[in-house]
Design a protein that fits this description.
Elements: H1 2-5, H2 10-18, H3 26-45, H4 62-71, H5 78-85, H6 94-113, H7 130-142, H8 148-157
Length: 174
Amino acid sequence: AEIAAGRLPADREEALRRLELFSLRPSDSRWDAGIDALAAFVEAEGHASPIQGYVSPGGFRLGLWVHNVRRRRAKLDAGQVREVEAFPGWSWDPQESLWRKGIAELAAYKDRHGHVQVPRSYISASGAQLGRWLDNQRTALRARRLTAARRQALDAVDRHWFTPPAEQRWPGRW
């Protein structure tokens, strides 16, 4: 409490600073632990977006730490922002990043196949569940949850994106 209030005598503060495992700002050591855990995760996985429940092999709750970093972006200093943004695959909004990846995958599918009638079970070469992603966009449109900007992006790939493939319709059921 004295440290936080700035009432710690200078000689005591200096003595504390000399202690190797002591920090006057415990958040610094937590930040460093998070950065180290994220670096190890990126090295192993190739991206900086662990699921929220991910716990590192050393027991660090990395998924929660990343979630909190994203949530507290406005409170980070410029150095911290630069530090996390330097990781490959870092995103402040992972849902938006996934959406952008989906639209890019859809455009690539159209380039290869000439249409966007993606079977629901289709998984791209990169491992993206493109069929499920597109089905989710159709569902969002029907539920009026698809933004105008996203609809325009889908329409730009192919204006027939909303029509599901034949095997997803109701053939012979009427």
